[in-house]
Structures are given as structure tokens and as C-alpha cells.
Write a structure and sequence with these properties.
27% of the residues lie in helices and 45% in strands. Strand 6 and strand 7 form a beta hairpin. The protein is built from four helices and seven strands, in the order βααββββββαα. The radius of gyration is 15 Å and the shape is globular.
């Protein structure tokens, strides 16, 4: 399981607000190119974001479904990412040091991503998710200047 953390200079509510806007999904999820639809009560359990991955003109239609939603502290998603299969993504937000510690755990659960899971694929997932949390942090903090 790939686990990464990021301290965000925003409250858990502000972080969860970004996660609650399904239209923001491709802005923080590395690999998602655009959203095709967001079900009305996102991020309630069972609701989905319909998104595409890849680069035009080769786009794959996928979806992400909410498995657990506990605002503002936890959101668990089942993300389909063809051709790799599905992954469970668990995001936890904990108030810490005037901000929020965001922990993202991702585990491939079906398809080639799960069958071929190894140290190399885990390292790639971690690197991808470090970038995802950096993007999420910038959005939640509503930065006006680049960080770093």
C-alpha cells in the first residue's frame, strides 16, 4: 500500500471542501484529464465522478465511486483507472499544527495494477500521490504565490 502525507496550511473543512467539489478532481488527481459528470450528492457514499484519463485524442472513460464519507475527516474512494484496474484511495484529514495533516493511502484492488503490484509500482504510486497531495494543498490553501 502506497502511503504519503502532506501538511496543509488549511483547515480539515477547507481540504474537504476541495475534495467535495467533484469538478476539481482532475486538478489534483494526477492522470485524470477531465470530468464528464459529477453525480448530484457527491461525495455521499455510492455517488460517482465520471472522468477521463489520458491525452487527447486517446482518452479512456472511467469513474470514481465514494465508499466512505465522513466530512471533514475522511473520504474513501474506489477509483477505476483503465487499463490498470481499480484502486482504493483513502484520504484522512487530521487537524495539526494550525493546519491539516492529509494522509493518502492507495492500494490496487483489481486488474493488472493489483496482479503486478511490487516495490517498483509502489514507488511510482507514492511519487504520483506526493504530487497529488501537493496539488490538493495548493488548492485548499488558495495560494497566491508558488510554494518552493
Amino acid at each position: 500500500m502506497a502511503v504519503v502525507t502532506q501538511h496543509v496550511l488549511a483547515t480539515p473543512e477547507e481540504v474537504f471542501d476541495v475534495l467535495s467539489n467533484g469538478w476539481c478532481y482532475p486538478s489534483w488527481v494526477v492522470g485524470a484529464s477531465h470530468v464528464r459528470a459529477v453525480e448530484p450528492s457527491w461525495p455521499a457514499v455510492g455517488t460517482r465522478i465520471h472522468h477521463s484519463s489520458g491525452l487527447w485524442p486517446v482518452l479512456l472513460k472511467d469513474e470514481t465511486k465514494v465508499e466512505r464519507s465522513e466530512p471533514p475527516s475522511r473520504l474513501t474512494l474506489l477509483a477505476r483507472g483503465r487499463p490498470w484496474g481499480e484502486a482504493r484511495v483513502d484520504l484522512r484529514m487530521t487537524a495539526q499544527d494550525g493546519g491539516t495533516l492529509v494522509t493518502l493511502e492507495e492500494e490496487p484492488v483489481s486488474g493488472p495494477g493489483a496482479w503486478a503490484h511490487n516495490r517498483l509500482s509502489e514507488a511510482v504510486l507514492k511519487a504520483r500521490n506526493v504530487e497529488a497531495l501537493a496539488r490538493l494543498a495548493a488548492m485548499a490553501e488558495r495560494r497566491t504565490q508558488p510554494n518552493g
